[in-house]
Design the sequence.
């Protein structure tokens, strides 16, 4: 089970601060997790400008130019945000017993280590 998943609210915990033009302290939702490279793409964080070659679509409209988009950031540089305190926290796992239609089943659940709240 992964500690950070798509849709989680995370905060950047390393790098330059916002006053110095960096992203440390910014919070955003995870758009994509690239597990092979241990990277995540976070909404509104690590913007880069990309130059796209000018082309034409089927209708004849021009495409391309300079675009800004989010670039991947290493998973160790972000921390999950605690839903209770809205501050970064570590993630833990614990077994919980869930009863469904009279059948008991143990399930691994992620929880915030600071508040103990289930994620």
Sequence:
């Amino acid at each position: 089970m992964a500690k950070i998943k798509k849709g989680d609210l995370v905060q950047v915990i390393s790098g330059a601060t916002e006053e110095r033009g960096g992203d440390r302290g910014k919070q955003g939702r995870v758009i994509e997790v690239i597990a092979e490279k241990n990277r995540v793409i976070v909404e509104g964080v690590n913007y880069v400008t990309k130059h796209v070659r000018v082309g034409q679509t089927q209708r004849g409209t021009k495409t391309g130019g300079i675009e800004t988009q989010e670039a991947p950031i290493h998973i160790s540089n972000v921390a999950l945000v605690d839903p209770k305190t809205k501050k970064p926290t570590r993630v833990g796992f614990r077994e919980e017993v869930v009863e469904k239609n009279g059948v008991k089943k143990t399930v691994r659940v992620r929880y915030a280590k600071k508040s103990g709240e289930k994620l």
Observations:
- The mean pLDDT is 90.
- Residues 14 and 20 are 13 Å apart (CA to CA).
- The chain is about 0% helix and 55% strand.
